[in-house]
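Hey L., structure's done. Input below.
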Amino acid sequence: MGQQIHDFNPGITAGGLFWTIPISENTISVNFAAGAAAFQATNVDVEDYHDVVNALMDGPEVDAEVSWDIRWNHPMGRTKIRDVQNGFVGDFVQNVAQIAWAGQTDTATFVSDPASTSVNEFSLLAHERNGVFFS
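Output:
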């Protein structure tokens, strides 16, 4: 395996939360009954830390943008779980996911193959409740 030269991520917050940023609700659509969903975002501001160690140390970075289009379709099966003892209930739909992704800095651009060429190993949509949300 070659040396990692790019690591696109939103960085680490002052509270220590990493690789996580708020995303607008309008980037996500779900039709759980049909076992389908989409998550699309364009030109999301992130940083390129060049490698994961530098990212975890919040080291030097350059400004970057990423875009993605993820689609979940073609439900293959459903499973429902209700575990009263552990306060957990969930409805799960196994399906197929496909993704197209792109990222860029001032000096480099990366674009995935089209989503239609994605190879899906395992995908799952889930609606679950636990803890105080369990009922």
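The two ends are 48 Å apart (CA to CA). The longest helix spans residues 52-56.

-- N.
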